[in-house]
Amino acid sequence: MIPTPAASPTAPFTVGLTGGIGSGKSTVARLFEARGAGIIDADRVARQVVAPGTPGLRALVEAFGEDILDPRGQLDRAALRDRVFRNSQARHRLEGILHPMIWEAIDRQKSTTKAPYCLLVAPLLVESGMQHRVDRVLVVDCPQDLQRQRAGARDGVSPQQIQAILEAQAPRELRLQAADDVIDNSGPPSELEPRVEALHRRYLERAASAGDP
């Protein structure tokens, strides 16, 4: 596990939202956002810290060479993925460079939120071993066959690509073991609203009590 700076003790109550491909994380996040939760997208933050001209991108070029850049000087994610995919040492080096930058940026966003609590949308929260960086872990869950069906319809990717992503993510059972809360998204979308509402009220209460002296 890559060590990261400790979260600020004054940071707002934070729920880590995670789940496998096609589980419905984005839909659930939008429902929480509509109720006033502050949303932080870990994938978006990860892209921001390696944008052209950033220290993050310069650090990656120094570590892995300029061939990880595309002709426009932006990070070629496919090239970087090929470089580290089968090389655990290179992957750990990549994580050692990026994880502290990503979490520093996440903590900055958390410190400036006006929302009663934050929802950190992090697809690889369990895989990265970063559950300790949030107050609660919320898993959006559904059967793997349904994940494949939804991912194929949404992304238009091949079954082989979807299977590769599933194999790269934590097993469903491992995510559920790490969960403090679970939203079952195996049914119709209409079932999500009351489940999100119930958890939202619970998180408001926990956030309020966390701020008590």
From TrEMBL:
GO molecular function, one term: dephospho-CoA kinase activity
Binding site for ATP: G22, S23, G24, K25, S26, T27
GO biological process: coenzyme A biosynthetic process
InterPro entries noted in UniProt: Depp_CoAkinase, P-loop_NTPase
UniProt key word Transferase: yes
Reactions mediated catalytically: 3'-dephospho-CoA + ATP = ADP + CoA + H(+)
Keywords: ATP-binding, Coenzyme A biosynthesis, Cytoplasm, Kinase, Nucleotide-binding, Transferase
One CC-aspect GO term: cytoplasm
UniProt-listed Gene3D superfamilies: P-loop containing nucleotide triphosphate hydrolases
Pathways involved: Cofactor biosynthesis; coenzyme A biosynthesis; CoA from (R)-pantothenate: step 5/5
One family name in Pfam for this protein: CoaE
EC code(s) of this entry: 2.7.1.24
Cytoplasm listed as a keyword: yes
Subcellular locations according to the entry: Cytoplasm
Family to which the UniProt record says this protein belongs: Belongs to the CoaE family.
Function: Catalyzes the phosphorylation of the 3'-hydroxyl group of dephosphocoenzyme A to form coenzyme A.
Record-given protein name: Dephospho-CoA kinase
Organism: Ectothiorhodospira mobilis
Gene name linked to the record: coaE
